[in-house]
Specification:
mainly alpha, 5 helices, flat
């Protein structure tokens, strides 16, 4: 909560403009609070693990080499799939032949605001006679 408050409120630089430009800026305090909060979360996870260590050892199987490699391989495949999906979207080029504007205006204008009429596929931009 403190991290969000500092980041959103822009304190202390809001109270003294120019005095916290290099040291003590709210963004710096945001990062300090985030690191300290992560540290305490990790300490809590370790304390919880140590308090349940006996039960966990009795009721769960230990990590296996195949299970570790399987998780690594699945993670790698999912990351590559995401990269491929977004890379394919960058390479995809829409066809201008399917565009209703291309039928009315076959030559694109050099500047988007250089023409006086808009491209409307229903013909509403034509002057009535």
């Amino acid at each position: 909560f403190l991290t969000c408050f500092l980041f959103a409120s822009h304190l202390p630089e809001r109270l003294a403009p120019g005095r916290f430009d290099y040291i003590g800026h709210s963004h710096q305090l945001f990062h300090i609070c985030a690191v300290v909060g992560t540290h305490f979360q990790m300490e809590a996870v370790l304390a919880d693990m140590w308090s349940r260590r006996g039960w966990l050892a009795a009721h769960s199987a230990g990590p296996s080499f195949l299970g570790t490699l399987g998780a690594l391989g699945l993670s790698l495949l999912l990351n590559l799939a995401i990269i491929a999906l977004f890379s394919a979207a960058l390479l995809w080029k829409p066809s201008t032949a399917l565009s209703p504007c291309a039928q009315n205006h076959p030559h694109p204008h050099p500047h988007p605001h250089s023409h006086s009429h808009s491209c409307n596929p229903h013909g509403a931009d034509r002057k009535e006679q």
